[in-house]
Structure formats: structure tokens, C-alpha cells
Amino acid sequence: MVTQLAPGGLAHEARATAMVFRREMIRFRHDKARALAMLLQPLLFLFVMGTGLSSVVASPGGLDFRTFLFPGVLAMSVLFSAAFAGISLVWDREFGFLREMLVAPVSKASIILGKCLGGAATATAQSIVLLILAGVVGVPYHPWLLFKLLVLLFIGAFMLTAMGVLLSARIKQIQAAMPMSQLIIMPMMFLSGALFPMANLPSWLEVLTKLNPLTYIVQPMRAEIFDHMGVPAAARAAFDPSITWFDWQVPTELQIAVALGFTGVVVAAAVALFSRTD
After folding, report:
1. Over the stretch 19-41, which tens digit does the pLDDT of each residue have?
2. Which are the contacts of 117, defined by CB distance < 8 A and separation ≥ 6?
3. Residues 185 and 108: beta-carbon distance below 8 Å
4. 5 domain residue, yes or no
5. Judging by beta carbons within 10 Å of its beta carbon (0-12, 13-18, 19+), is residue 30 exposed, middle or buried?
């Protein structure tokens, strides 16, 4: 007769979450090549595309187009890393490690929370390199601004890791996971306002940007940067129009709340799916 171990309460679940988180940090520390590769694309967007477009994009108030791109590039720096951190569960499934975790006497929620925290922490750590370069594109090194950007990046990374985990609940092979992740990541990136202003968009494109959860990370970051820089009103209207719902201007706090709410829904869905499928 097999005796099933009973969970040891909140402290027991917290230890399980911490162990999964620690495993993600160890994996990140031993995979420096992946970290460098994930940073290369955002740097290319910022300094190659941003510099090239600066010469052709008219900017009211003399705003450097790279300054506009900076928050979008920050979001991109966590987008790929966090999503792939979540999808790495497919690797764990193929090698049998996921099953070992799921049969442990801990809740699925603790495992998934540890995975999401680890993915968010590693993705946010990578973005620090870009934050160091903020002054190159005219973004001030204000401690409170940098802290807010890191918090928003962590929220975005947690959300994207949770989406990767949710995707991993249904995908059984890594060969299928990669194209599926790209199918989700690329539209999220392009429809978040990361690479183009959201002013004067066609109505259908405006609706899609407002339905994209990543928009509610990119736009608050851009608003924080422009607030600290004192960007002129004309440039603000052209490059950072406020998100509106039926002509109602959405406060920044509510935008962040939308991102947090969506993250909670995705995590709950991931827990439910893993409970049924593994």
C-alpha cells in the first residue's frame, strides 16, 4: 500500500516554489550564450533600425526616435526570453523531469509559480544591460524611473512566461513549440506599439493594439519615460497618445492592473490545464 504524502501547508508550498525558481536561475547562469543571443535582436532594433528611422521620421519637438523605441525594445528584451523560459517545460516533459515534479507532494500551482518567477527574474535580469544604455538614447538615469521600468518589465516577463507555460500544457514536442511560440510572440510584439506610434492608426489596428496585453506594459513604460523627460505636448501627442476605451482615457494605474489581471487569468488557466493533462 502506497501512502501519499500530505502537503505541509504554505511553508511547504513556498519551499517547492523556491526550488523551481532556483533551478531556473541555475539554468540561466549556465546558459550565457542564450542570454547574449536574446539581447542581440533588441540591440539591433534600437541602434540599427532606430538610428536609420531617425533620419526619415519627422519628430515634433526634436524627440530622438530611438528614445521613442527604447521602452518597446525593453519589452522585446523580456518578450523572447520569458516566452521561451515558459516553453522550456516542453523540454522538461520530453526528458521526464516534468513528470517527476508533478508527482511530488506539492501543488501544481507552486511548480508553475516557481517557473514563472524564475522566467520573469532571468528575463528582467537580461534587460538590465539595456537599461545601462538608456543614456545613449537620451533617457535619464533617474533612480525612481529605472525602478519603475524594472517593475513593469518584471510584470511583463511574468505574464509572458505564464503564457509560455500555458502553451506548454498542450504542446508535447519541442519541434512544435518553437513555431507556435513565434506565432504568438511576433503579433504581440508588433501590435503593442513597441515599434510604431499608436496615434492615427486605422480603427481595426487600434482595436487589436488595445486587445493585446503587452500594450499595457509598453505604454506605461513609455509614459513614465516621457514624464521624466518633460517631452513637449506636440511630440507627446504624436508618439505617446493615451490608451482610450470608448473615448475614455485609461489611467496608467488601470493599464498596469489590466496586465496584472490578465497574468492572473493565464496562471490560473495553466494550473487547471496541467492538473488535467499531466
Report:
1. 888 888 887 777 666 667 667 77
2. 17, 21, 24, 158
3. no
4. no
5. exposed
Longest dimension (CA), the chain: 76
Provide φ and ψ at 256, rounded to 5°: -65, -40
For residue 135, give the DSSP letter.
G
Task: Flag whether 186 is in a domain.
Answer: yes
Helix (H, G, I), strand (E, B) or coil at 8: coil
The span from the CA of 52 to the CA of 253, in Å, is 34
Query: What confidence tens digit (pLDDT) does each residue in 94-134 have?
Result: 666 667 676 777 788 888 898 889 889 988 988 888 888 88
Q: Residue 26: helix, strand or coil by DSSP?
A: helix
159 occurs within a structural domain: yes
Query: Cell 510584439, residue?
Result: 189
Q: Which percentage of the chain shows pLDDT scores above 90?
A: 23
Alpha helices in the chain (DSSP H): 10-29, 32-43, 50-54, 65-94, 97-102, 108-132, 143-168, 174-190, 203-211, 215-229, 233-239, 252-277
Give the residue among 169, 153, 186, 147 at the shortest CA–CA distance from 259. Answer: 153
How many domains, the chain? 1
| Nearest C-alpha neighbor of 47 from the set 24, 78, 73 | 73
Q: How many CB atoms are located within 10 Å of the residue 133 CB?
A: 14
Q: Which domain holds residue 178?
A: 67-277
Residue 83 lies in a domain: yes
Spatial distance between the Cα atoms of 244 and 249, rounded to a whole number of angstroms: 4
